[in-house]
Amino acid sequence: MGFNCGIVGLPNVGKSTLFNALTQSAAADAQNYPFCTIEPNTGRVVVPDETLHELARVAGSQKIIPTQLEIVDIAGLVKGASAGEGLGNKFLGNILSTDAIIHVVRCFENDDIVHVNGRIDPLGDIETIETELMLADLESIDKQIKNLEKKARGLDKDAIKLLVDANEIKKNLENSIPARNGGIDSTPFNLLTSKPVIYVCNVEEASAASGNKYSDMVKQKFGEIADVLVISSKIEMEISQIVDQDERKMFLDDLGLSESGLDQVIKTGYKTLGLQTYYTIGPKEAHAWTITVGMTAPQAAGKIHTDFERGFIRAEVISPSDFISLGGEVAVKEAGKMRLVGRDYVMQNGDICHFLFNN
Hints:
alpha/beta; 3-stranded mixed beta sheet
């Protein structure tokens, strides 16, 4: 698994349509009425990886195992969701299990698709969702503060430190500052607004390449603190029906687009979450693994199996460019391009690894 993200937003902003397009399925019921997504739909998509396929070709791998992105389509939130309005609390809980939030914002005009608030106001929509998430976080942090206070009275050093952070986070939330933007490590508190957010401006087809006045508003307001993507869910639906890669590229070129919305989301998600890829390559299979930037070789090995990390001895590392240009592992070794690394080695994006370990 690469990473997972939850698609959130107000009803009728195009979440389910985008979900269907990104997952190339019809799993979500994209209808023109609120709450058509009654249960959170989950889909997985293969992360495009040309390097993996080229490595597999050189190695003659029988099987290719790419990494995946898991997308959860969460029902439309409304004002009052944190207090149970709409289908609120249940779906707020679903967000907690995701690595990141894709916040879909309606940036198109269409009289045939009703807006839950009767007007197109992307900044107001974002504020509504963010307010509900912060209200839910305030309730959560209040409960955690009470528990920490009990432990702190018993002179628990960890609790005393966490209590200071919790009170600061609470103060920020009360001042409309999400946990992710407060400058304090909120990881121990598992809060909704701790999740990194990617804003997706859902625009009409004609604005997919350059955006429009609504997406410009979102970029101007949030572009310096978060990633803002401009995507047309309608175009993504069309792209999802095109199987041939050359035909898909021609379609994108005609629209003035360099890549699909899915590719944008994946690249942005990896950057936002600080992720990278390494490979294990052999005649049986070529496998891509997703790890956090900064992980050491033993930690990366642990992604395959905990025994690999526990019994780690060393790793043989090859760069993908050497593997491809020289024609495989044997040629790389003969050219003296393979490196032996120890426990302190920090993994680099694209490393090809063979781990040696004690059972």
